[in-house]
């Protein structure tokens, strides 16, 4: 048929004008991102013109206008374009191009949480300064009509703001949501709930009386309720494109935000081809703190993402609010369960149907799990299932409730009918009753809340270290609330509540933990506006609550430095600062070229043996070393701390943790005559004490002046 079409086109000029023969070259074109580092300092430099000129040299067919997708030139240099593989290869070899990489699709990874962290209404807030803080949210948009984004009680927009409100049709900004941009679809409006949820968690205004049908009632708020929000929508249901994320960073930095929160991840890639690492590096150069989620890939080692040392990488943990949903059997025995159940069965007992016996057309294994199509006779009953599921099968069958066996109940959720989850021992006891009783009955009570004395615990879904990109840099950095966080929602989004649209709802994930730390960083900057991004990060890490290793098997690879403690982070006493040059020297030690590093940072940089800085000696607030199992060599960390407290301060070193590790600190005492003064020290771990290490051993160094405790984990692993 293609040959016949070609003959017809050649036969007639008229037909030729009507024919369109797609070329293989056009079909092969894909979007690639060309990252070109820092912007040149020349005042006459035009990024768009430069990018077009480059493409004119690269494009083999098609026009530059058809090829160029997006130009970055407000905060750093680069562009995205539709290219063939050969054009991409040609572009990679051109002067000034640091890296070329595909436009990868990334994925999106409360009324009590801030009170648990100690940042409640009685905390030290300075309204005038707080209202000058701007949090940039790179996410899936925002629902601007939410009460969390009301500008009630908020003054004029800060003069430093350089952004715009380009939210699209029927989108209006105010003194709270002061800026909006979108890089997908036609609006910055959040049609999925993710962006509204994260934005309100970081900097939402106070909203009293928030709950989900009476459950978890309280005041919803961000860490800086008077702070401003700038939204950058880069995500749609299909995912979040790398070129849009880079454009959002480019704009957010130039717009004048103070903190960026991005709850997006897409695996581990080198920093020069990772849009989040690239964008956050340039943000750091401007003093902007970037927080990012480590991901929700569970407890398998080495799955954490967003690993660059200039990012605050956030794990998810629990709070002290525990949702309890009890089950009562026909004999009146109460069995403790978990879930968030707002369905009130009013204590009425219903017949219990075990999945295995409620099916006549499925295998035993499928029936026990209440698999799709297996429940035949469950109308008006409570269904008992051996495995967790989405409950839709039970609802479709007319069940009034369901009781699920869930091995891990640290993240209970809501359902479309009454739901309770039971752990191993409680489920076995309940199922024994169901199987032994001739007429088993029971009910599910409405949820209540109790204090969880085991909190905080890292959630089972939260991705674990070690850092697979920078082996001697600890990741995650910090843990924050990420389980059943109640925050703003879009009424367009579906919930487990049948037929209901809601303004506030529970969500769980490291996506929810990340904006908590962004909010804390914003809070710290309200009281310490002159601090660098690394100083803010250090303060957050070194003042964290130490977490219990007996309750968190993966130790620092699960929780990093510990659980965020915002009220103390504003007065850390000492901070570990990292300059731009330190990061460049570290990249030099990892065999990045002098040319590439120079282009990345702008200016000239020569990578030599003298200029190299090992990961181990980067001035990081945590000390981490990967060693071979047979190693017996001593490990030495060199660090420098800056006094941000009073003059005449004396700090003494204290060591705690694994007694197997033999650790020496030199000197053991640091005396600071004045604020801003720096002091250096070394920490040496004896190689002999490392014998027999099979996975991870850790301890901690605390510098204490009697009032402040500056704690750094010391982690050694094989």
Automatic annotation (TrEMBL):
Domain Peptidase S8/S53: 131-562
Annotated Inhibitor I9 domain residues: 31-108
A family per Pfam: Inhibitor_I9
InterPro entries listed in its UniProt record: Peptidase_S8/S53_dom, Peptidase_S8_Ser-AS, Peptidases_S8_3, S8pro/Inhibitor_I9, SBT, Subtilisin-like_FN3
Protease recorded as keyword: yes
Subtilisin-like protease fibronectin type-III domain segment(s): 617-716
Superkingdom, taxonomy of origin: Eukaryota
Entry's Gene Ontology BP terms: proteolysis
Active site per UniProt: 139 (charge relay system), 194 (charge relay system), 511 (charge relay system)
Signal peptide location: 1-24
An annotated Gene Ontology molecular function: serine-type endopeptidase activity
UniProt keyword list: Glycoprotein, Hydrolase, Protease, Serine protease, Signal
Family: Belongs to the peptidase S8 family.
Protein name per Swiss-Prot or TrEMBL: Peptidase S8 propeptide/proteinase inhibitor I9
Species for this entry: Arabidopsis thaliana x Arabidopsis arenosa
Taxonomic path: Eukaryota, Viridiplantae, Streptophyta, Embryophyta, Tracheophyta
């Amino acid at each position: 048929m293609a040959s016949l079409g070609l003959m017809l086109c050649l036969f007639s000029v008229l037909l030729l004008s009507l024919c369109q023969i797609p070329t293989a070259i056009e079909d092969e074109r894909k979007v690639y991102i060309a990252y070109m580092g820092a912007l040149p300092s020349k005042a006459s430099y035009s990024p768009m013109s430069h990018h077009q000129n480059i493409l004119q040299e690269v494009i083999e067919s098609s026009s530059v206008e058809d090829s160029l997708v997006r130009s970055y030139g407000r905060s750093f240099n680069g562009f995205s374009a539709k290219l063939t593989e050969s054009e991409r290869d040609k572009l990679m070899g051109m002067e000034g191009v640091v890296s070329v990489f595909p436009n990868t699709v990334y994925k999106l990874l409360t009324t009590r949480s801030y009170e648990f962290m100690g940042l409640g209404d009685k905390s030290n807030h300075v309204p005038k300064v707080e209202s000058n803080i701007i949090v940039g949210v790179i996410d899936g948009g925002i629902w601007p009509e939410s009460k969390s984004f009301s500008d009630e009680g908020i003054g004029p927009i800060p003069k430093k703001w350089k952004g715009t409100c380009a939210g699209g049709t029927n989108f209006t900004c105010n003194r709270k949501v002061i800026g909006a941009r979108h890089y997908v679809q036609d609006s910055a409006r959040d049609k999925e709930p993710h962006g509204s949820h994260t934005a309100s968690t970081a900097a939402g205004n106070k909203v009293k009386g928030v709950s989900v049908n009476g459950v978890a009632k309280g005041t919803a708020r961000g860490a800086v309720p008077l702070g401003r929000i700038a939204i950058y929508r880069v995500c749609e249901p299909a995912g979040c494109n790398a070129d849009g994320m880079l454009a959002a960073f480019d704009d957010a930095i130039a717009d004048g935000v103070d903190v960026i929160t991005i709850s997006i991840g897409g695996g581990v890639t080198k920093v020069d081809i990772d849009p989040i690492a690239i964008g956050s590096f340039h943000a750091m150069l401007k003093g902007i703190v970037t927080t990012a989620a480590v991901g929700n890939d569970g407890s398998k080692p080495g799955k954490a993402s967003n690993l660059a040392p200039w990012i605050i990488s956030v794990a998810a943990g629990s709070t002290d609010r525990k949702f309890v949903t009890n089950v009562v059997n026909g004999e009146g025995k109460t069995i403790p369960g978990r879930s968030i159940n707002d369905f009130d069965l009013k204590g009425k007992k219903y017949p219990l149907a075990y999945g295995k016996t409620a099916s006549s057309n499925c295998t035993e294994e499928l029936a026990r799990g209440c698999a799709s199509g297996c429940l035949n006779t469950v109308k008006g009953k409570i269904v008992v299932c051996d495995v967790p599921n989405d409950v839709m099968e039970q609802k479709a069958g007319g069940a009034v409730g369901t009781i699920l066996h869930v091995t891990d109940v640290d993240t209970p959720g809501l359902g479309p009918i009454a739901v309770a989850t039971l752990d191993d021992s409680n489920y076995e006891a309940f199922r024994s009753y169901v199987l032994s009783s001739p007429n088993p009955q029971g009910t599910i009570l409405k949820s209540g809340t109790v204090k969880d004395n085991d909190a905080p615990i890292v959630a089972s879904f939260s991705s674990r270290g070690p850092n697979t990109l920078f082996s001697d840099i600890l990741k995650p950095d910090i843990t924050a609330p990420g389980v059943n966080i109640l925050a703003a929602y879009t009424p367009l989004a579906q919930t487990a509540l049948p037929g209901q649209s809601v303004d506030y709802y529970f969500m769980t994930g490291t996506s929810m933990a990340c904006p908590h730390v962004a909010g804390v960083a914003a809070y710290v900057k309200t009281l310490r506006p002159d601090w660098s991004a690394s100083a803010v990060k250090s303060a957050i890490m070194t003042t964290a609550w130490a977490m219990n290793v007996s309750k968190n098997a993966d130790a620092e690879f699960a929780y990093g430095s510990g659980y965020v403690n915002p009220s103390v982070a504003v007065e850390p006493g000492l901070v570990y600062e990292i300059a731009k040059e330190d990061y460049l020297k570290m990249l030099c030690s990892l065999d990045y070229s002098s040319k590439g590093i120079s282009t990345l940072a702008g200016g000239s940089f020569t990578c030599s043996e003298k200029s190299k800085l090992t990961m181990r000696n980067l001035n990081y607030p945590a000390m981490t070393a990967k060693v071979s199992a047979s190693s017996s060599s001593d490990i030495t960390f060199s660090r420098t701390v800056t006094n941000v407290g009073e003059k005449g301060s004396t700090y003494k070193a204290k060591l705690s943790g694994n007694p197997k590790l033999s650790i020496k600190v030199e000197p053991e005492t640091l005396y600071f005559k004045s604020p801003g003064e720096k002091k250096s020290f070394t920490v040496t771990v004896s190689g002999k004490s490392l014998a027999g290490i099979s996975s991870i051993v850790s301890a901690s160094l605390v510098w204490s002046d009697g009032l402040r405790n500056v704690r750094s984990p010391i982690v050694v692993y094989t």
